[in-house]
Structure formats: C-alpha cells, structure tokens
Amino acid sequence: MFEIIVMVCLAATGEDCREYKMPDTQFEDAVSCIRESHGKAYDWQSENEKYTIIGTRCAKDAKVPDVPKD
Q: Are 53 and 44 in contact (CB under 8 A)?
C-alpha cells in the first residue's frame, strides 16, 4: 500500500521542516496515490494554518509520524 508523505514546515518561520504521513490515506498503486496527494494535502493545510506544506510524495511503509494536529 502506498501512503501520502508531506514535507511540512512551520508557517511563521518557514523552518523546522519535517516529513509526515497523512493518516488513513492508503492506495493500491502509486498513480492513485500521486493523483490524490495534492487534494488531500490541500484539505489538511486548510485546517492547519500553523503549518505550510512544501511538497508531497508517495511511499510504501514510510517510517514517519502522522501529520501533527493543530
């Protein structure tokens, strides 16, 4: 299963950037994951104004924490 991984930075400073995975977003194939990644990231970003997403990617079994909650 592929998961959406986002690179997230603090919006106030643009620093302290880290990778996180979007919870409950698993896809059978990479194409579906990539297709959905920007929309899911945008939805999360609009609810978490403390952070800025600077990139997305898809990966299998990523060992990164879930995105922070505001």
A: yes
